[in-house]
Amino acid sequence: MDARTVVVDVADMLARRVVTGEYAPTTLMPSVRQVAEEFEINRATAQLVLGRLESQGFVDAKRAKGFVVRDVRVDGGMEVYCRLFQLSVTASPGIASEMFEEMVESQRQILADAFLAYTAMCDEGSLRQGDLHDDVDRLEALARAEEPDHVAILSLELALIRRIMGTTGQAFQRATLNSIGATILSVPEAVAAYFAVSPDLHVLMWRAMAAVWDSGSAPSDAQLALFDDLLGLYHQRVLSKFDEIVLPAEQVDEEVAIDFATA
Protein backbone atom coordinates (compact mmCIF):
# COMPACT_ATOMS: atom_id res chain seq x y z
CA MET A 1 0.00 0.00 0.00
CA ASP A 2 1.23 3.53 -0.84
CA ALA A 3 2.75 5.31 2.20
CA ARG A 4 0.57 8.37 1.58
CA THR A 5 -2.56 6.22 1.66
CA VAL A 6 -1.43 4.67 4.94
CA VAL A 7 -0.96 8.12 6.48
CA VAL A 8 -4.44 9.23 5.36
CA ASP A 9 -6.15 6.03 6.51
CA VAL A 10 -4.50 5.92 9.93
CA ALA A 11 -5.03 9.63 10.51
CA ASP A 12 -8.74 9.20 9.70
CA MET A 13 -9.03 6.30 12.14
CA LEU A 14 -7.48 8.38 14.91
CA ALA A 15 -9.60 11.40 13.99
CA ARG A 16 -12.75 9.28 14.29
CA ARG A 17 -11.71 8.47 17.85
CA VAL A 18 -11.60 12.19 18.53
CA VAL A 19 -15.04 12.61 16.96
CA THR A 20 -16.58 9.85 19.07
CA GLY A 21 -14.98 11.10 22.29
CA GLU A 22 -12.68 8.12 22.73
CA TYR A 23 -9.88 10.68 22.82
CA ALA A 24 -11.24 13.52 24.95
CA PRO A 25 -10.22 17.18 24.57
CA THR A 26 -7.02 18.19 26.44
CA THR A 27 -5.86 14.56 26.75
CA LEU A 28 -2.75 13.28 25.04
CA MET A 29 -2.94 11.41 21.76
CA PRO A 30 -0.99 8.15 21.57
CA SER A 31 2.71 8.81 21.06
CA VAL A 32 4.60 8.25 17.82
CA ARG A 33 5.83 4.93 19.21
CA GLN A 34 2.33 3.85 20.25
CA VAL A 35 0.83 4.75 16.87
CA ALA A 36 3.63 2.88 15.09
CA GLU A 37 3.08 -0.23 17.21
CA GLU A 38 -0.73 -0.25 17.01
CA PHE A 39 -0.93 0.15 13.24
CA GLU A 40 2.30 -1.74 12.46
CA ILE A 41 3.94 1.15 10.66
CA ASN A 42 7.39 2.68 11.08
CA ARG A 43 7.92 5.69 13.33
CA ALA A 44 8.54 8.07 10.45
CA THR A 45 5.11 7.24 9.02
CA ALA A 46 3.53 7.52 12.48
CA GLN A 47 5.05 10.98 12.82
CA LEU A 48 3.46 11.95 9.50
CA VAL A 49 0.11 10.64 10.76
CA LEU A 50 0.22 12.84 13.85
CA GLY A 51 1.46 15.76 11.76
CA ARG A 52 -1.55 15.34 9.47
CA LEU A 53 -3.89 15.43 12.46
CA GLU A 54 -2.19 18.63 13.61
CA SER A 55 -2.55 20.26 10.18
CA GLN A 56 -6.24 19.29 10.14
CA GLY A 57 -6.77 20.95 13.52
CA PHE A 58 -7.51 17.84 15.58
CA VAL A 59 -4.43 18.09 17.83
CA ASP A 60 -1.88 20.64 19.00
CA ALA A 61 1.81 19.76 19.30
CA LYS A 62 3.20 20.65 22.72
CA ARG A 63 6.95 20.68 23.30
CA ALA A 64 8.13 17.95 25.68
CA LYS A 65 4.56 16.79 26.05
CA GLY A 66 3.29 15.33 22.78
CA PHE A 67 0.13 15.88 20.78
CA VAL A 68 -2.84 17.20 22.76
CA VAL A 69 -6.40 16.62 21.55
CA ARG A 70 -8.28 19.83 20.69
CA ASP A 71 -11.92 20.49 21.42
CA VAL A 72 -12.65 20.54 17.71
CA ARG A 73 -16.30 21.57 17.99
CA VAL A 74 -15.42 24.57 20.15
CA ASP A 75 -12.04 25.67 18.79
CA GLY A 76 -12.12 24.49 15.18
CA GLY A 77 -12.51 26.75 12.15
CA MET A 78 -14.50 25.95 9.03
CA GLU A 79 -11.94 23.50 7.62
CA VAL A 80 -11.95 21.54 10.87
CA TYR A 81 -15.75 21.72 10.98
CA CYS A 82 -15.94 20.31 7.46
CA ARG A 83 -13.62 17.41 8.25
CA LEU A 84 -15.41 16.75 11.52
CA PHE A 85 -18.73 16.54 9.69
CA GLN A 86 -17.33 14.18 7.05
CA LEU A 87 -16.01 11.81 9.70
CA SER A 88 -19.09 12.06 11.92
CA VAL A 89 -21.46 10.75 9.26
CA THR A 90 -20.22 7.21 9.85
CA ALA A 91 -18.37 7.50 13.19
CA SER A 92 -20.98 9.45 15.15
CA PRO A 93 -24.24 10.03 13.21
CA GLY A 94 -25.85 11.91 16.09
CA ILE A 95 -23.12 14.57 15.95
CA ALA A 96 -23.42 14.65 12.15
CA SER A 97 -27.17 15.28 12.48
CA GLU A 98 -26.59 18.20 14.85
CA MET A 99 -23.92 19.70 12.61
CA PHE A 100 -26.04 19.30 9.49
CA GLU A 101 -28.92 21.11 11.17
CA GLU A 102 -26.58 23.98 12.06
CA MET A 103 -25.35 24.23 8.48
CA VAL A 104 -28.84 24.10 6.96
CA GLU A 105 -30.13 26.78 9.33
CA SER A 106 -27.13 29.03 8.59
CA GLN A 107 -27.61 28.48 4.87
CA ARG A 108 -31.30 29.29 5.16
CA GLN A 109 -30.58 32.60 6.86
CA ILE A 110 -27.90 33.53 4.34
CA LEU A 111 -30.24 32.71 1.45
CA ALA A 112 -33.11 34.72 2.91
CA ASP A 113 -30.88 37.76 3.49
CA ALA A 114 -29.35 37.51 0.01
CA PHE A 115 -32.72 37.23 -1.72
CA LEU A 116 -34.09 40.22 0.20
CA ALA A 117 -31.03 42.35 -0.60
CA TYR A 118 -31.15 41.40 -4.27
CA THR A 119 -34.88 42.09 -4.45
CA ALA A 120 -34.31 45.58 -3.03
CA MET A 121 -31.76 46.27 -5.78
CA CYS A 122 -34.16 44.99 -8.44
CA ASP A 123 -36.71 47.45 -7.12
CA GLU A 124 -34.18 50.19 -7.90
CA GLY A 125 -33.94 48.97 -11.49
CA SER A 126 -30.18 48.50 -11.23
CA LEU A 127 -29.86 44.83 -12.27
CA ARG A 128 -29.99 42.90 -15.52
CA GLN A 129 -31.72 39.53 -15.30
CA GLY A 130 -30.61 37.87 -18.56
CA ASP A 131 -27.71 35.85 -17.19
CA LEU A 132 -29.77 34.78 -14.20
CA HIS A 133 -32.54 33.41 -16.41
CA ASP A 134 -29.98 31.53 -18.52
CA ASP A 135 -28.66 29.81 -15.39
CA VAL A 136 -32.19 28.91 -14.25
CA ASP A 137 -32.82 27.42 -17.71
CA ARG A 138 -29.67 25.29 -17.29
CA LEU A 139 -30.87 24.29 -13.83
CA GLU A 140 -34.19 23.15 -15.30
CA ALA A 141 -32.41 21.10 -17.96
CA LEU A 142 -30.38 19.33 -15.27
CA ALA A 143 -33.48 18.70 -13.14
CA ARG A 144 -35.41 17.17 -16.05
CA ALA A 145 -32.65 14.79 -17.11
CA GLU A 146 -33.54 11.10 -17.02
CA GLU A 147 -31.11 10.68 -14.12
CA PRO A 148 -30.63 14.13 -12.55
CA ASP A 149 -27.08 14.85 -11.39
CA HIS A 150 -27.72 16.08 -7.85
CA VAL A 151 -24.18 17.37 -7.34
CA ALA A 152 -24.37 19.37 -10.57
CA ILE A 153 -27.75 20.83 -9.58
CA LEU A 154 -26.56 21.92 -6.14
CA SER A 155 -23.33 23.29 -7.61
CA LEU A 156 -25.26 25.41 -10.12
CA GLU A 157 -27.58 26.68 -7.38
CA LEU A 158 -24.55 27.70 -5.32
CA ALA A 159 -23.13 29.50 -8.34
CA LEU A 160 -26.44 31.35 -8.76
CA ILE A 161 -26.46 32.42 -5.13
CA ARG A 162 -22.80 33.50 -5.31
CA ARG A 163 -23.63 35.69 -8.31
CA ILE A 164 -26.47 37.33 -6.41
CA MET A 165 -24.33 37.89 -3.34
CA GLY A 166 -21.51 39.30 -5.45
CA THR A 167 -23.97 41.91 -6.72
CA THR A 168 -25.22 42.76 -3.24
CA GLY A 169 -21.71 43.02 -1.76
CA GLN A 170 -22.19 40.35 0.92
CA ALA A 171 -18.59 39.12 0.79
CA PHE A 172 -18.38 37.56 4.25
CA GLN A 173 -21.72 35.77 3.92
CA ARG A 174 -20.66 34.52 0.50
CA ALA A 175 -17.44 33.07 1.95
CA THR A 176 -19.46 31.36 4.68
CA LEU A 177 -21.88 29.95 2.10
CA ASN A 178 -18.95 28.68 0.03
CA SER A 179 -17.65 26.72 3.02
CA ILE A 180 -21.07 25.29 3.79
CA GLY A 181 -21.61 24.38 0.14
CA ALA A 182 -18.22 22.68 -0.19
CA THR A 183 -18.91 20.68 2.98
CA ILE A 184 -22.32 19.51 1.79
CA LEU A 185 -21.05 18.60 -1.67
CA SER A 186 -18.27 16.49 -0.13
CA VAL A 187 -20.73 14.21 1.71
CA PRO A 188 -23.04 12.06 -0.48
CA GLU A 189 -25.57 11.62 2.33
CA ALA A 190 -25.91 15.40 2.66
CA VAL A 191 -26.34 15.84 -1.10
CA ALA A 192 -29.04 13.16 -1.12
CA ALA A 193 -30.88 14.93 1.70
CA TYR A 194 -31.28 18.07 -0.42
CA PHE A 195 -33.37 16.01 -2.82
CA ALA A 196 -35.90 14.79 -0.29
CA VAL A 197 -38.34 16.23 -2.80
CA SER A 198 -38.21 16.33 -6.59
CA PRO A 199 -35.43 18.36 -8.27
CA ASP A 200 -38.27 20.24 -9.99
CA LEU A 201 -38.95 22.02 -6.70
CA HIS A 202 -35.52 23.62 -6.88
CA VAL A 203 -36.38 25.01 -10.29
CA LEU A 204 -39.82 26.21 -9.20
CA MET A 205 -38.29 28.18 -6.34
CA TRP A 206 -35.89 29.96 -8.67
CA ARG A 207 -38.63 30.64 -11.23
CA ALA A 208 -40.81 32.15 -8.52
CA MET A 209 -38.01 34.39 -7.27
CA ALA A 210 -37.12 35.45 -10.83
CA ALA A 211 -40.76 36.42 -11.41
CA VAL A 212 -40.63 38.72 -8.40
CA TRP A 213 -37.38 40.26 -9.56
CA ASP A 214 -38.71 40.72 -13.10
CA SER A 215 -41.74 42.58 -11.81
CA GLY A 216 -39.53 45.52 -10.82
CA SER A 217 -41.43 46.06 -7.60
CA ALA A 218 -40.83 44.94 -4.06
CA PRO A 219 -42.64 41.77 -2.94
CA SER A 220 -45.55 42.18 -0.57
CA ASP A 221 -45.31 41.17 3.07
CA ALA A 222 -47.54 38.20 2.27
CA GLN A 223 -45.17 37.06 -0.51
CA LEU A 224 -42.16 37.37 1.79
CA ALA A 225 -43.90 35.42 4.54
CA LEU A 226 -44.91 32.70 2.07
CA PHE A 227 -41.36 32.43 0.74
CA ASP A 228 -39.95 32.15 4.26
CA ASP A 229 -42.50 29.47 5.17
CA LEU A 230 -41.79 27.45 2.02
CA LEU A 231 -38.03 27.69 2.55
CA GLY A 232 -38.49 26.59 6.15
CA LEU A 233 -40.66 23.61 5.18
CA TYR A 234 -38.22 22.59 2.47
CA HIS A 235 -35.24 22.69 4.81
CA GLN A 236 -37.18 20.71 7.42
CA ARG A 237 -37.70 18.00 4.81
CA VAL A 238 -33.96 18.11 4.08
CA LEU A 239 -33.11 17.64 7.77
CA SER A 240 -35.58 14.77 8.13
CA LYS A 241 -34.18 13.04 5.05
CA PHE A 242 -30.62 13.34 6.33
CA ASP A 243 -31.60 11.78 9.66
CA GLU A 244 -33.42 9.01 7.79
CA ILE A 245 -30.23 8.27 5.86
CA VAL A 246 -27.62 8.38 8.63
CA LEU A 247 -29.37 7.62 11.91
CA PRO A 248 -30.46 4.18 13.13
CA ALA A 249 -34.16 3.62 12.40
CA GLU A 250 -35.10 3.47 16.08
CA GLN A 251 -33.47 6.84 16.73
CA VAL A 252 -35.35 8.45 13.85
CA ASP A 253 -38.63 7.00 15.16
CA GLU A 254 -37.85 8.38 18.62
CA GLU A 255 -37.20 11.89 17.23
CA VAL A 256 -40.46 11.79 15.27
CA ALA A 257 -42.34 10.82 18.43
CA ILE A 258 -40.76 13.74 20.29
CA ASP A 259 -41.72 16.14 17.49
CA PHE A 260 -45.36 15.04 17.67
CA ALA A 261 -45.36 15.28 21.46
CA THR A 262 -44.06 18.86 21.41
CA ALA A 263 -46.11 20.06 18.43
Automatic annotation (TrEMBL):
GO MF term list: DNA binding; DNA-binding transcription factor activity
The entry's keywords: DNA-binding, Transcription, Transcription regulation
Domain HTH gntR-type residues, every copy: 4-72
A Pfam family of this chain: GntR
Xref: CDD domains: WHTH_GntR
Gene3D superfamilies: Winged helix-like DNA-binding domain superfamily/Winged helix DNA-binding domain
Name of the protein: Putative GntR family transcriptional regulator
